[in-house]
């Protein structure tokens, strides 16, 4: 997770989710926590000179598909922590076009459900 205090100080969490922002002037500070698979969250804290504040975040998973081309295949992935979501495919992105469940069984790769499909001549949309 990435954190920023108004762009003045930035940090990335460690393996335990801990972070430290330094070099911030005393006063009211807004801290933003972000990650590509989660909804961004902002919290405020009132910093007193010479003291340390603890600000905890609990980001909510956001259902975003990542679609990437890998050689002659397309790789579709989404956060593995999203339970109950299913990949669907359709021949058109038109809302009225029929959508069907993607038949592939997703593998978990780097904390993401991942489906790899061969590129073919048919245009295909995913949701």
Rg calculated over all Cα atoms? 20 Å
In whole angstroms, how far apart are the ends?
25 Å
Mean pLDDT: 84
Class by alpha and beta content: mainly beta
Helix content: under 10%
How is this fold's topology laid out?
Layout: E1 2-5, E2 9-12, E3 27-35, E4 38-47, E5 66-70, E6 73-79, E7 88-90, E8 100-101, E9 107-109, E10 112-118, E11 125-126
Antiparallel strand pairs: 1-2, 1-3, 3-4, 5-6, 6-10, 7-8, 7-11, 9-10
Overview of this structure, please?
There is one protein chain. This protein has about 130 residues and is an all-beta fold. Helices cover about 0% and strands about 45% of the residues. It is built from no helices and eleven strands. The chain has strands at about 1-5, 10, 25-35, 40-45, 65-70, 75-80, 90, 100, 105-110, 110-120, 125. It has a four-stranded antiparallel beta sheet with strand order 2-1-3-4, with no helix packed on it. Strands 5-6-10-9 form a four-stranded antiparallel beta sheet, with no helix packed on it.
Descriptive labels:
single chain; 127 residues; mainly beta; four-stranded antiparallel beta sheet
Summarize the structure in short:
With 127 residues, the chain is mainly β. It has strands spanning 2-5, 9-12, 27-35, 38-47, 66-70, 73-79, 88-90, 100-101, 107-109, 112-118, 125-126.
